[in-house]
Amino acid sequence: MVKAVVAGASGGIGQPLSLLLKNSPLIDELALYDVVNTPGVAADLSHISSRAKISGHLPANDGAKAAFKDADIIVIPAGIPRNGDLLPMQRAPL
């Protein structure tokens, strides 16, 4: 049984990524985690007929602990929105 977690599942990259993972025959369980709207995204994807069971988690009530427990694959497309005042090198110091 393969469990995948998407941290940042409510964002512009996380939602389509979650859709692709939900349709994958390699995934048995898919947990979505983000700071907002994750249960809604999970509810939308739950209507897709596939083998993957899906759940949505928020930070409240140890949502991260539940989402990441026993995960085999963790994908983190979460990020901070760009600020027009910052140059690319200022956002990502090495």
TrEMBL record:
Tell me one GO molecular function of this protein. Answer: L-malate dehydrogenase (NAD+) activity
- Is rRNA-binding one of the keywords UniProt gives this record? no
EC number(s) from the headed UniProt entry? 1.1.1.37
**Keyword terms, alphabetized:** NAD, Oxidoreductase, Tricarboxylic acid cycle
Q: What is this protein called?
A: malate dehydrogenase
Q: Which GO terms describe its biological process?
A: tricarboxylic acid cycle
Q: Which residues form the Lactate/malate dehydrogenase N-terminal domain?
A: 3-83
Gene3D superfamilies under this entry?
NAD(P)-binding Rossmann-like Domain
Looking at the Swiss-Prot or TrEMBL record, what is one Pfam family this protein matches? Ldh_1_N
Listed GO CC annotations: cytosol
